[in-house]
Amino acid sequence: MLEKFIPRLRVNTVYDIDLEALYAQGYRGIITDLDNTLVGAKEPHATPELVAWLETAKQAGFQVVIVSNNDEGRVSLFTKPLGIPFVHAARKPRRKPFRKALSLMNLSAAQTVVIGDQMLTDVFGGNRTGLYTILVLPIAAADEGVMTQFNRRMEKVILRRLRKKGLWHEEEQR
């Protein structure tokens, strides 16, 4: 069971992801979380750097869908200027929002990666759905809501257990 919380790849930010390598491995879709994965939880819009990264991903041949537990207003405000489809109020780690994102892209789980900053929602949900999971460090942990703060405490417990079993090594982070 603990293995479901282990991402396939750990990086500092989305900018550290080798999109060319993922494409060469057959991945064509990116499902990404929004808050503290792409921008801070209080940031309403994409940064110029993120806009450039998203454009690079699209030019490389990737489809992108944002799957967020946040409300429609927050996610829509962010995605509309970018023209990116989204799934809001996702209730991750449920499989349903990931499956909906796959349907929006018309891709299989084997063709898709999920990027997120939380083990309990993004990684666990992605692994349960058969996606290639990528964990990034949270951008602005100080701005997190009560549920996310609770999840972070639970992540610490899971990390201790993973380390104890020899399943988590800090040097794997890029």
Automatic annotation (TrEMBL):
Entry's Gene Ontology molecular function annotations: phosphatidylglycerophosphatase activity
Transmembrane segments: none
A UniProt-annotated Pfam family: Hydrolase_like
GO cellular component: cytoplasm
UniProt-recorded name of the protein: HAD family hydrolase
